[in-house]
Design a protein that fits this description.
The protein is an alpha/beta fold and about 300 residues long. The protein has ten helices and ten strands. The strands form three sheets. A four-stranded parallel sheet has the order 2-1-3-4, sandwiched between helices. A four-stranded parallel sheet has the order 8-7-9-10, sandwiched between helices. Strands 5-6 form a two-stranded antiparallel sheet. The protein is globular, with a radius of gyration of 20 Å. The relative contact order is 0.14.
Length: about 300
């Protein structure tokens, strides 16, 4: 189910950046003396981009923390904030389908939307007892090693926009990758102490984290964001949750958890909260986001 995260992505990355460079006219690129402006659709990508960019690039966040990207409807002020943005980093894989339309509305055009997700060995979770069809997880950053690769892609993209800043971006990217290596080692050590290994998530957001740290996602409460599951689906989930060997149940702060909490009450189990998007006070950096997920696992799986 999980393609090798460590294999080379060079061919696809170079192709994507070449297409990007060809699509953005030189006249649209910032002059050497003017600060470049880019944006990111969701917080994890924004945090990576801003930390690589430092003070050489103005990096903006489209989706405010706490909002659900699946149901997001851009407001006029969101569009206006992107009018002078040269490049919009998006996730793709169905998470932020509004990225292209908001870029067009802002006058940036689809050519400047750079989707990172397809370059990160996307996971296709197979259909199972609680899913009627395969499920693509777009949240690749919940695997720190994929996030590490994303840092390198962002470095290349910013270097393409501002070649003079290339050494600056590479130095900052290397420092961020070092921090992510330490983060991964910490979570790997913590995961060795988790006694339980089966989890049920509210929607398909933790397949990468689970695959990296030896967990199994056995159920998803809402496989299609915004669509209520069938009665048969809910019944199957209840069976997965019941003690003594039931899976641990997780909900997310951006999504309505009423159904999951009803399931937990009926099964006599606890509900645990994970935030795969971050950006709030408790997850103001990428590392905080991942450590928050690991902390939730500590509570639920030990």
């Amino acid at each position: 189910m999980l393609a090798g995260a460590g294999r080379s992505h060079g061919g696809r990355t170079v192709l994507a950046l070449a297409l990007l460079a060809a699509a953005v006219p030189l006249a649209c690129r910032p002059a050497a003396q003017r600060q470049a402006r880019v944006a990111a659709t969701v917080f994890p990508i924004y945090d990576i981009a801003r930390r690589v960019a430092g003070d050489r690039v103005d990096v903006r966040l489209v989706l405010a923390p706490g909002l659900d990207p699946h149901g997001y409807e851009p407001r006029p002020k969101d569009v206006a904030a992107l009018a002078d943005v040269t490049l919009l980093f998006a996730v793709g894989l169905g998470l932020d389908p509004w990225a292209a339309s908001i870029a067009r509305a802002a006058g940036a055009g689809e050519a400047r939307v750079f989707e990172l997700g397809p370059l990160m060995d996307p996971i296709l979770a197979p259909p199972g007892v609680v899913r009627s069809e395969p499920l693509i997880d777009a949240h690749f950053w919940t695997d720190p090693l994929r996030a590490r690769h994303a840092v390198g892609v962002v470095v290349e993209a910013l270097d393409g926009l501002d070649p003079e800043g290339g050494p600056f971006y590479r130095e900052r990217g290397a420092a961020l990758q070092h921090a992510i290596d330490a983060l991964h080692a910490d979570v790997r050590d913590r995961s060795a102490r988790w006694q339980r290994r089966r989890i049920v998530t509210f929607h398909g957001s933790l397949f990468y984290f689970a695959a990296r740290y030896g967990l199994q996602v056995v159920g998803v409460v809402q496989p299609v964001p915004g669509s209520e599951p069938t009665a048969q689906h809910v019944s199957a989930l209840g069976a997965l949750l019941r003690p003594p060997d039931g899976a641990a149940l997780f909900v997310e702060p951006q999504l309505d958890s009423q159904l999951a909490r009803t399931l937990a009450r009926d099964a006599g189990v606890s509900v645990h909260v994970v935030d795969p998007l971050g950006g709030g006070p408790a997850a103001s950096s990428y590392e905080d986001l991942i450590r928050g997920i690991a902390h939730a696992m500590d509570e639920a799986l030990r």
